[in-house]
């Protein structure tokens, strides 16, 4: 068998490339640590333009849809509007009761900051949202983020002058304290990525698809809705999969609350 | 020239395409081009734009950049050996 040995100068050149790679990494780590805010600010006009173009393209293509499908969609939307109007009336009454209760207890919810979402999954690789509100708008790290329809989705992780990064609770490995509405049972939810959570519960605890999981805060906001429950006959625990209150890939606005 | 154009295309991909498209494109560029050190910088851009753990140390803050560095350096001797077999 013929064996080929690397020439000495080839090995030396590989070593040279390796050192160059490490130097590029060290330079990058220092430079990008210092420039992260500037880079996000520089890129945000591109994201804004992309959002505007996507919206315009979607609107232009809507003309091409078949008339029959538009009529069917119109009918189903009318029904949905009627359902939501009824739900809204009930909800408004409940909200007024809640506000009166909070007022009595001196725990009125504080004002929120409405922010547009510049970048969202799957564009962002780590279940992160980039919002167009930053330090200048009163945003600070640790503030809780809601979807406008209600429901907590994450917390502000990094703040720049005009932008902020929101880490979603569904980020892989992220752990969140919550309360299972059915039975008021405190649970720990683990982010599973892609807008999903995993909860491990003792098998005696009842959990059904459609059950709500609420935040442990005083206001008890919605964090997730249970989608499936898996239990094996031999296991003493059951695995519950829950989904975030909104589709993260479609989010356009968020509320940031202190 | 193709190297520069590819780098520009990957930057554009990072800004507008989903991660499951731009990450394989970046990986392919690192494999295709000899000593694609630009890949490390591009991975830093991904980490800085979309990562959130900048205060948790280098390994947590720049996982993609570390991955790119490992891939670039591992491929050096590997490509050399493949050429000699």
How would you sum up this structure, described in words?
The complex is a heterodimer of chains A (258) and B (85). Chain A has 258 residues and is α+β, with helices and mostly antiparallel strands. In chain A, 36% of the residues lie in helices and 28% in strands. In chain A, the strands form two sheets. Chain A has a six-stranded antiparallel β-barrel with strand order 1-2-5-4-3-12. In chain A, strands 6-7-8-11-10-9 form a six-stranded antiparallel β-barrel. In chain A, strand 7 and strand 8 form a beta hairpin. The termini of chain A are far apart. The mean pLDDT of chain A is 84. The radius of gyration of chain B is 14 Å and the shape is globular. In chain B, helix 1 runs antiparallel to helix 2 and helix 3 packs antiparallel against helix 5. Chain B has five helices and no strands. By secondary structure, chain B is mostly helical. The N and C termini of chain B lie far apart (30 Å). The mean pLDDT of chain B is 86. At the A-B interface, helix 1 of A face helix 2, helix 3 and helix 5 of B.
- The low-confidence runs of chain A, each spanning 5 or more residues with pLDDT under 50, are none
- Radius of gyration of chain B from the CA trace? 14 Å
Mean pLDDT of chain A: 84
Helix content of chain B: over 70%
In helices, the fraction of residues of chain A equals 25-40%
Radius of gyration of chain A from CA coordinates = 25 Å
Gap between N and C termini of chain A, in Å?
Answer: 72 Å
What is the approximate shape of chain B? globular
Number of helices of chain B: 5
Report the principal-axis shape of chain A.
globular
- Overall structural class of chain B, as computed from helix and strand content, comes to mainly alpha
What's the mean pLDDT score of chain B?
Answer: 86
Oligomer: heterodimer
